[in-house]
Write a structure and sequence with these properties.
With 690 residues, the chain is of the alpha+beta class. It contains 24 helices and 26 strands. Strands 14, 15, 16, 18, 19, 21 and 22 form a seven-stranded antiparallel β-sheet that branches. Strands 2-13-10-3-9 form a five-stranded mixed β-sheet. Bound molecules: 2-(butylsulfanyl)adenosine.
Length: 690
C-alpha cells in the first residue's frame, strides 16, 4: 500500500481511508488526553501505538490526507502545566519502530544506501527502557538542571525532583579518579521504577489502603517525577539509567562512539544498563535480539523492546533525521504484554482440592500470534479487591507462556451496565454448599466426593511427575467415571480389557497400552505414589524426605504430628496436613484400596548397603520405635555398615531406645553410652547424606 501512488487508489477507497484517518485522529486525541492530562488511560500503550501506526501508514501512503493538527505531526507531549518549562539544547526526538527482524535488516540497508559505503558498521543494542526520558545538565560537574522530555522541544523543569534520585549524581565524577567532564555536559537517560521496588511500594500503599492509583511501574515513576513537592518524589524508589550525551561545549572531550559513551557515562558515576552489547555482524545481532525476548522478564525494569544504534556517532549525526526520528537508530518493539478487552462472563473451575477458581471469559483478542479467550481471576477475594465486573473492559497481563491474568478493570470505561460478580454459594458441579477455610482466601466445594473434584484428582494422579500413566487425559478420565467404571484412582488398576472394549475411542492397541501402562505404574517408587495422593502441599521434595523416614505407606499413615515435626525440614503445619489427610475416613479407605490393588507401597531404601557410615560401630536396640520395627531398624544400621548386638557394654556405640525401654536403657546410662531415639538415628543418616 505504501508504494501505491495516490491517484491509482480509486475514489471510494480514498474516501474510506480519509474517514478512517479522521476517526483515528479523534481516537488518538481522546486517548492522549486520558493518558497525559487525566493520567487515567483507557487502553494500553500497545493499543495506542497500534492506532497511531495505522494513522501514520495511511498518511504516508496518502500525504494529501495529512492535516496540520494530525497527532502524527508532533512529537508526543507529556508536559505538565503546573511545572516551569525549559527548552532542550537538542530536541528529544523519538525512534522509528521495527516489529520484525526483517524491518531491522531493511533499516540497515537504507543506511548503507544513504551512506553509499561498503565499510562495515558496528551497532550497539540497548534495552528500550519503559520509563521517562530525563535530560540532565551538569555545569562544571554540578547538576544544575533536570528536565523531562515534554514535547521533545520543551520539557518540565524537575531539577529538585531529579536531585532526590540516588542514581542521579549531584556532582561528577562521583569517583575522584573518574574523568573530568567538560564545562557543560548534558546527558539523557530514563527514569524508571524497578519492578521489585514497585512491588514493595504497591505493598506499602496497599497497607495504607491506597493502592488502586498505582497501576504500573511506568505511570508510578512518571507521577513521582512530576511531583510539585520533591519530598514526595524522594519517598518513591526511582532509578535513572543514563544512555546518551545530548550536548557539550567541548565535543573533543567526549567519546565519538555510543559504546565509549556508555563507558564514559559509567566512569563519571552514572548508572548504565549492564545489558548492552556491541555487534559488527548483523545476523549475530538479530539472533541476540530475538533471544532477548525471553530474557526481558528476568530484568528488574520494564522494557518494551530494544534500541539498535549505530555505534559511530559522527555517522549517526550525519545521517540526520527523517520526520521526527533519527535515521541512525531504531527501536525493536516486543509484542505487547498488557492488552485490554471486554470481560463477557465468569466461569468457575473446581480443582482437585475442591478449590473454586473463577475464570474470565473474554471477547477474543489477538495478540502476537495467539488469540486470548480466557484469563484467570485467581480467587473471589481477588475479584472483589480488584472490583472486576462482567461487562468491564479489563487489562490483562501475559507473561511468558502462562495463562494471562486479569490485572483489573478500566474503571473509566464503565457504562453503568456492568454486573457485579458474586461468589457462588454452591458448587457449580455438585451443588453442595461452598465453604471457606479459616485463614484462606479460596472458596471450596464442601463435598469431598464432588464428581468434578474426583475427575481432577484422578487427572492429577495419572499426570506427569505423579504416576505418569500415559493414555489417559481429562477426557478419558471423565469417560471412565461417566461409564461407572471408576470412582477413584485405585479403581484404575482393576480395569479390564472387557470393560474398555465397548468404550468409544478404545481400539485394541489403545487398550493394550493403557493396561500395560497401568501395570507398570504399580511399580512406581513410594515417593511418587505419595506425591500422587495429592496431599495439599506435598510435592516431590517432602515425599522423598518422608520415604527416608518411613518404611512404607502403612508406616506413614500411622505417624503422628509430633513424629513428623521432629523431622528436620518438616514444619508443624505440613505435619498436621499429612496426619489430617490420612485421618479422613475416605482417604483411609482409598489408601487401603491402593495397597490391595497391588501398588508398591513400601520403600526400598533399606534393601542395599547405603554407606559405610557405621563401620566399626555397634548398636543396641530396645523398646518400641514409633514407625519401624526393630528388624527394620537393624537392617538400616547394617545397610550402613554397623553391627547390632543384643547386650549393652562399654564398647556399644549407641543404644537406640523406643517406648517402654527397660534394663538395656538403664545399663546404657550407667556405662555412659550415648542414647538415641528413632529420629536421632535417622538424623545421623540424614546428616551424612546431605
Ligand atoms: S536513544 C531519538 N536509548 O525511547 C531519541 N532511547 O522512542 C534517541 N528510550 O523517549 C533515544 N530507552 O527515552 C534511547 N536505550 C535507549 C532508550 C531510549 C528508552 C526512550 C527514550 C525516548 C523513546 C524514543
Amino acid at each position: 500500500m505504501t508504494d501505491q501512488p495516490a491517484q491509482l487508489t480509486d475514489q471510494a477507497e480514498l474516501e474510506a481511508l480519509s474517514k478512517r484517518a479522521i476517526d483515528l485522529r479523534e481516537q488518538i486525541r481522546f486517548h492522549n488526553y486520558r493518558y497525559s492530562v487525566l493520567s487515567s488511560p483507557l487502553i494500553t500503550d500497545a493499543e495506542y501505538d497500534a492506532l497511531f501506526d495505522e494513522l501514520d501508514a495511511i498518511e504516508k501512503a496518502h500525504p494529501e490526507l495529512v492535516t496540520p493538527d494530525s497527532p502524527t505531526q508532533r512529537v508526543g507531549s507529556d508536559l505538565d502545566e503546573r511545572l516551569p518549562k525549559v527548552t532542550h539544547p537538542e530536541p528529544t526526538l523519538s525512534l522509528g519502530k521495527a516489529y520484525t527482524l526483517d524491518e531491522i535488516r531493511a533499516w540497515k540497508d537504507r543506511i548503507v544506501k544513504t551512506l553509499d559505503t561498503t565499510a562495515s558498521l558496528s551497532y550497539v543494542v540497548e534495552p528500550k527502557f519503559d520509563g521517562l526520558t530525563t535530560v540532565l545538565t551538569y555545569t562544571d560537574g554540578v547538576l544544575t538542571l533536570g528536565a523531562t522530555r515534554g514535547d521533545g522541544y520543551v520539557g518540565d523543569d524537575v531539577t529538585a525532583n531529579t536531585r532526590t534520585i540516588r542514581t542521579v549524581p549531584l556532582r561528577i565524577p562521583v569517583n575522584p579518579d573518574g574523568p573530568t567532564p567538560p564545562h557543560k555536559l548534558v546527558i539523557r537517560g530514563e527514569v524508571v521504577m524497578h519492578k521489585s521496588d514497585f512491588k514493595a511500594f504497591q505493598e506499602k500503599m496497599r497497607e495504607g489502603g491506597d493502592e488502586t492509583r498505582y497501576v504500573n511501574a511506568r505511570n508510578t515513576a512518571s507521577g513521582a517525577l512530576k511531583q510539585l513537592d520533591a519530598r514526595i518524589t524522594a519517598s518513591r524508589p526511582l532509578t535513572m539509567y543514563a544512555f546518551g550525551i545530548v550536548d557539550t561545549d567541548d565535543p573533543q572531550a567526549v567519546p565519538r562512539s555510543q559504546w565509549e559513551t556508555l563507558n564514559y557515562l559509567q566512569a563519571l558515576g552514572f548508572l548504565t544498563s549492564k545489558d548492552v552489547k556491541r555487534f559488527t555482524d548483523m545476523e549475530d545481532m538479530l539472533t541476540y535480539i530475538k533471544d532477548f525476548e525471553n530474557k526481558r522478564h528476568s530484568l528488574d525494569f520494564e522494557i518494551d523492546g530494544l534500541v539498535v544504534k549505530l555505534d559511530d556517532l559522527p555517522t549517526y549525526d550525519a545521517l540526520g533525521v527523517v520526520g521526527k526520528n533519527p535515521r541512525g537508530a531504531i527501536a525493536y518493539k516486543f509484542p505487547p504484554e498488557i492488552v485490554s478487552t471486554k470481560l463477557i462472563a465468569v466461569s468457575v473451575n473446581v480443582g482437585r482440592t475442591g478449590v473454586l477458581v473463577p475464570a474470565a471469559e473474554l471477547e477474543p483478542i489477538f495478540v502476537s500470534g495467539a488469540t486470548i479467550r480466557q484469563a484467570t481471576l485467581n480467587n473471589f477475594d481477588d475479584v472483589k479487591r480488584k472490583d472486576v465486573r462482567v461487562g468491564d473492559r479489563v487489562m490483562l497481563k501475559r507473561a511468558g507462556e502462562v495463562i494471562p491474568f486479569v490485572i483489573g478493570p478500566v474503571v473509566a470505561a464503565r457504562t453503568g451496565e456492568e454486573i457485579e460478580i458474586v461468589p457462588p454459594t454452591e458448587c457449580p458441579f455438585c451443588h453442595h454448599p461452598t465453604i471457606r477455610r479459616e485463614g484462606e482466601v479460596a472458596l471450596y466445594c464442601s463435598n469431598d466426593e464432588c464428581p468434578e473434584r474426583v475427575a481432577r484428582s484422578i487427572e492429577y494422579f495419572v499426570g506427569r511427575g505423579q504416576m505418569d500413566i500415559d493414555g489417559l487425559g481429562m477426557k478419558g478420565v471423565r469417560q471412565l467415571i461417566e461409564k461407572g467404571l471408576i470412582k477413584d484412582e485405585a479403581d484404575l488398576f482393576a480395569l479390564t480389557k472387557e470393560q474398555l472394549e465397548p468404550l468409544e475411542g478404545y481400539a485394541e492397541t489403545k487398550i493394550q497400552n493403557l493396561l500395560k501402562n497401568l501395570e507398570a505404574a504399580k511399580q512406581r517408587p513410594l515417593d511418587r505414589l505419595i506425591v500422587s495422593l495429592g496431599i495439599p502441599g506435598i510435592g516431590t521434595t517432602v515425599a522423598k524426605l518422608l520415604v527416608k523416614y518411613f518404611v512404607s505407606l502403612d508406616a506413614l499413615r500411622k505417624t503422628t504430628v509430633e513424629e513428623l515435626d521432629a523431622i528436620p525440614s518438616i514444619g508443624p503445619s505440613t505435619a498436621e496436613t499429612i496426619v489430617e489427610w490420612f485421618t479422613k475416613p475416605h482417604n483411609g479407605r482409598f489408601v487401603d484400596k491402593l495397597i490391595a490393588a497391588g501398588l508398591r507401597t513400601d520403600s526400598d531404601q533399606f534393601a542395599a548397603p547405603k554407606s559405610t557410615l557405621f563401620d566399626g560401630m555397634t548398636f543396641v536396640l530396645t523398646g518400641t520405635l514409633p514407625s519401624m520395627t526393630r528388624d527394620e531398624a537393624a537392617a538400616l544400621i547394617e545397610a550402613n555398615g554397623g553391627k547390632v548386638s543384643g547386650s549393652v557394654s562399654k564398647k556399644t556405640s549407641y543404644v537406640v531406645a523406643g517406648d517402654s525401654a527397660g534394663s538395656k536403657l538403664d545399663k546404657a546410662r550407667e556405662l555412659n553410652v550415648k542414647i538415641l531415639d528413632q529420629a536421632g538415628l535417622l538424623a545421623l543418616l540424614e546428616n551424612q547424606q546431605s
